[in-house]
Write a structure and sequence with these properties.
Blueprint lengths: L7 H19 L20 H18 L6 H14 L6 E3 L1 H12 L1 E4 L2 E6 L2 E7 L4 H5 L6 E5 L2 E2 L7 H7 L7 E7 L5 E7 L1 E4 L3 E6 L4 E6 L6 H14 L5 E5 L8 H9 L8 E7 L2 E7 L11 E5 L6 H11 L4 E4 L7 E7 L5 E10 L13 H5 L1 H7 L16 E3 L6 E3 L8 E2 L9 H8 L1 H9 L8 H16 L5 H6 L1 H16 L2 H8 L4 H11 L10 E2 L4
Helix pairs in contact: 7-8, 8-9, 13-16, 14-16, 16-17
């Protein structure tokens, strides 16, 4: 599909925000060390003077400044200004942010365990978390929320965020809820807010008779267990031999969770997986244990420009040992290790304490001397053509290393470069396509609420496609809609499977169409060696 350069400006801010989320929100707490007192890491000879100067300055402002000031605000600004002089990933977390940030990594939130849509001034239940309060109480998909604690929330014009807040709160709080089910029957339920687990591993399925697929969204506190829980039935019940590990858009997280999974992919004990080293942090090596529970033959790791930190550690170890093939586009390039220290005000300092290095000795951290250029990396990659051509990737010849087994050249200083390159589909940057497809899930949801999982999915897909086109089509966009017909039909079918069946059904439909997966399967079933894959672009003539 042709590239629509005129629309790129629409998507630059979105793309940049994704990159910032990767770099500043999720790439933290890499070492699973216990939190320590910050003072232990400060030189006793300099601490009093430094702290005294800052405190003296704040007191002068408080007592003598012409206008009243917010002390906490000034302190926060001072802290952030100091950290801005260090690196992009050393950050201050305010007391207001700390719970949400920690819950994100721990893989939980406080609520009743429902996923919702706000359609026609009414909250619709899309899905419920298994064994969560909503599930136990009998809430089901397609139920509509009428009231919460005697407050009517349907048809009142109440803001969606206000309703969401009513469904959250402190653990143990009781909610009295009234709903209407698909048959318009009223349900009155009482349930309590609890910690709701959020899985960091999206799913795992068999793609064919011998190939499995597992998608890891981030490396949270329980990722290793979640990964193994999915891997076990694939190997024991489904005859898995080859494995695709999808790390696309995975921003990283806990380092030990990534290394524990890596250890399962190496049969021999003592294989170096990654090491960390900093000016005030001793070198620490993570090695394979040799305790492999499930044998795996060939491996493919999928990455893209939003794969960062722990994702790059995993891809780097697999690549450096020539253990498998890396498929996709060059990764983010975050090779800094953060530790989190609690502060007396209830906030926290997330401080970069070390760099990590892949088994070959390369650091994949991008240069960050120019802060503006660091944050503009996503945009720069686009305009330089890197998303569409492997030849546009710039390598630093002074940072070339060799893989441990085959001696292939690999490069440091800028993420992980894949063995097999997959160009970005230019449709991702098309504003019209995004506008049309963004509304599809809600549309499908409203059309299928009276159906069941045994419905004819293909027939329903064609039916809903025609209906959706009739709504969206006008003389000005008729040609563009036709251009995107296959993508629209695909998204409609995926939404139907998601709402009526489950994630596994969606995976089994979507994955065979995925060029990343296709390239992986071609590698698994070909006689090509890893050395033959260097500088490969999938789909080239």
């Amino acid at each position: 599909m042709s590239n629509r350069t005129e629309n790129i400006k629409v998507w630059q801010p979105l793309a940049l925000s994704v990159m910032l989320a990767v770099g500043m929100v999720f790439g933290y707490k890499m070492n699973d060390k216990a939190d320590g007192e910050l003072i232990e890491y400060i030189d006793d000879d300099t601490t009093p003077a430094a702290i005294g100067q800052i405190e003296q300055l704040i007191r002068f402002i408080e007592t003598r400044y012409v206008d009243s000031i917010d002390r906490d605000y000034l302190v926060d600004k001072a802290i952030n200004s100091i950290l801005d002089e260090l690196d992009p990933h050393s950050v201050y977390i305010s007391p207001e942010q700390i719970e949400a940030v920690n819950n994100e990594m721990e893989g939980k939130f406080k609520g009743i365990g429902v996923e919702i849509y706000y359609i026609n001034d009414t909250v619709n239940i899309i899905d419920v978390v298994p064994e969560g309060p909503a599930d136990v109480a009998g809430i089901e998909s397609f139920d509509q929320l009428i009231s919460i604690n005697d407050s009517i929330v349907a048809g009142t014009g109440m803001q969606f965020e206000d309703i969401r807040k009513m469904l959250r709160g402190d653990i143990g709080n009781t909610l009295n809820i009234t709903l209407l089910n698909k048959d318009r029957e009223e349900k009155k339920l009482t349930l309590k807010i609890d910690d709701i687990p959020v899985s960091s591993v999206e799913g795992g399925v068999m793609i064919d008779q011998s190939t499995g697929y597992i998608k890891i969204d981030r490396f949270g506190a329980k990722t290793y267990k979640e990964f193994m829980d999915l891997l076990e039935p694939l190997t024991e019940d489904e005859n898995l031999q080859n494995l695709i590990i999808d790390l696309r858009d995975n921003p990283g997280g806990y380092l030990p969770q990534a290394t524990n999974i890596l250890s399962q992919l190496f049969k021999n004990k003592g294989k170096l997986l990654v090491y960390t080293k900093g000016n005030n942090d001793r070198k620490f090596e993570y090695k394979s244990t040799g305790k492999v529970f499930f044998p795996i033959d060939k491996i493919s790791v999928l990455i893209n420009e939003n794969s960062a930190s722990g994702s790059e550690i995993m891809a780097g170890a697999i690549q450096d040992w020539d253990r498998g093939v890396i498929v996709g586009r060059r990764s983010f390039g975050k090779g800094l290790v953060q530790e989190q220290y609690d502060l007396s005000n209830g906030g926290a300092l997330r401080l970069t304490v070390a760099r990590y290095y892949t088994p070959s000795g390369r650091s994949i951290q991008r240069d960050y001397d120019d802060g503006e250029d660091y944050y503009a990396d996503y945009e720069n990659r686009y305009f330089e053509g890197e998303f569409f051509s492997r030849d546009s990737i710039e390598f630093d010849d002074e940072r070339v290393f060799e893989t441990k087994s085959l001696g292939r050249p690999v490069y440091g200083g800028g993420g992980i470069t894949p063995d097999i390159f997959i160009p970005q589909d230019s449709v991702m940057f098309d504003a019209f396509h995004a506008e049309v497809t963004s509304e599809l899930p809600r549309f499908v949801f409203t059309q299928i609420k009276d159906l069941d999982q045994n419905s004819d999915v293909d027939g329903l897909t064609n039916q809903l496609y025609e209906k959706y086109i009739s709504i969206k089509e006008n003389p000005e966009n008729k040609a563009e809609l036709k251009q995107f017909s296959s993508e629209i039909k695909r998204d409609i079918k995926a939404s139907i499977l998601n709402f009526l069946q489950n994630d596994d059904a969606v995976f089994k439909f979507v994955l065979p169409l995925d060029p990343f997966v296709k390239a992986s399967l071609d590698y698994f079933y070909s006689e090509n060696q890893l050395t033959d894959l260097l500088d490969t672009t999938y789909g080239e003539n």
